[in-house]
Amino acid sequence: MSKINRKICMAPMMDCTDRYDRYFLRLISKNIFLYSEMIATGAIINGDKKKVLNFDEFEKPVALQLGGSDKKELAECCKIVEDFGYDEINLNLGCPSKKVQKNKFGACLIKEPDLVADCLNAMVNSTNLPVTAKTRIGFDQVEDFDYLNNFIEKIKGTGVKTIILHARKAILKGLTPKENLKIPKLNYEMVYEIKKSNPEIEIIINGAITDTNQIRSHLNKVDGVMIGRAIYQSPYFLAEIEKDIFKNNNVPNREKIVEQLVEYVDREVKKGVRVNQIMRHTVGLYHGQRGAGKWKRYLSDNMMARDSDFQKVKHILEVVQNNEKAEMAI
Ligand SMILES: Cc1cc2nc3c(=O)[nH]c(=O)nc-3n(C[C@H](O)[C@H](O)[C@H](O)COP(=O)(O)O)c2cc1C
């Protein structure tokens, strides 16, 4: 198996990084490593596995993120996920939502290093895929290098070789998940220190990274950078990443992306997928460009309705290619 390139990763994001979003992002970026949204172990074990886990080969390489804290269930899910053809399995140790805490997974597990080690051990022993973890740098009053480093030591002991660190602690009580992405202060230094103390571990830094200068500067200190909102809200940022970071000079322009999207939508609609399931992820494609408002309006007028049909998507191509070219072209 070829080694995964995690230099730039798309963050796992609930309701965002589903298979349709990942396909769209892959049209722009060949080199980014993609993560699924978090999938709870119960959804895989008790749910419609194909519905939950199927994806298009074109999306690869792609990691599946699991949420759970029952080692047997996690191990069972790893086997299933491997059979579906994913490239990595990640354990979520960073989500602070109330629902997730109630089910005892996500960020509250930072408080239970032994349980985390048990879970990761069971996962590593049940699959040939790389198992990785995504966590925060602390919780509540605890933002302490020694605490975090001991937690990392525990994770390391399981054979996990890649850890994603969201450079903020999680406040487990009193903040909404959205506030938890903003209010706890960023502490990149703590992540750099962890890398210095654990040079053999691949450390991916995450949190509020929005441009290629920041990316380059982080890459001097750690092995990879994970980005969430900046890419989801402005997916064509990936084109800049391809050019600047991966030195790829063959990035398709937005028109080409739309052309390929239309072909994809055509294929998926025939399988029963709603246009909106795909196109909702593309709202930000023209972010920051003249004509961005028109693109958004066109999508909301024509594609957010449940009865959207493919003809309307075809028309969007005409809109981009002919009528609005001058305004919407890059
Ligand atoms: C809408 C949304 C959904 C998210 N869902 C997940 C998730 O399923 N799993 C996870 O580990 N983190 C999740 N996160 C956190 C992101 O992966 C990431 O750590 C966070 O947004 C910080 O990165 P950014 O500043 O680049 O967005 C989510 C964040 C947002 C905004």
Q: What order do the helices and strands come in, and which of them pair?
A:
Layout (H helix, E strand, L loop, with lengths): L7 E3 L8 H10 L4 E8 H5 L3 H5 L8 E6 L3 H14 L3 E6 L4 H5 L10 H12 L6 E9 L5 H12 L5 E9 L17 H10 L4 E5 L5 H8 L4 E4 L1 H5 L3 H8 L9 H17 L4 H5 L12 H11 L7 H14 L1 H4 L2
Parallel strand pairs: 1-2, 1-8, 2-3, 3-4, 4-5, 5-6, 6-7, 7-8
Helix pairs in contact: 4-6, 6-7, 7-8, 12-15
Bound molecules: flavin mononucleotide.
Flavin mononucleotide binds next to strand 2 and helix 10.
N→C terminal distance: 38 Å
Tally of discrete structural domains:
2
Percent of residues in helical segments? 40-55%
Shape: globular
Task: Tell me the name of the CATH class of the largest domain.
Answer: Alpha Beta
Q: Which strand order do you get reading across the main beta sheet?
A: 1-2-3-4-5-6-7-8
Supply the CATH architecture of the largest domain.
Answer: Alpha-Beta Barrel
Radius of gyration: 20 Å
Work out the helix count: 16
Instruction: Enter the CATH topology name of the largest domain.
Output: TIM Barrel
Structural class: alpha/beta
Ligand inventory reads: flavin mononucleotide
Strand portion, in percent?
Answer: 15-25%
By DSSP, the count of extended strands is 8
Poorly predicted sequence stretches spanning 5 or more consecutive residues: none
Note the run of SSEs as H and E.
EHEHHEHEHHEHEHEHEHHHHHHH
Largest sheet properties: 8 strands, parallel, barrel
CATH superfamily of the largest domain: Aldolase class I
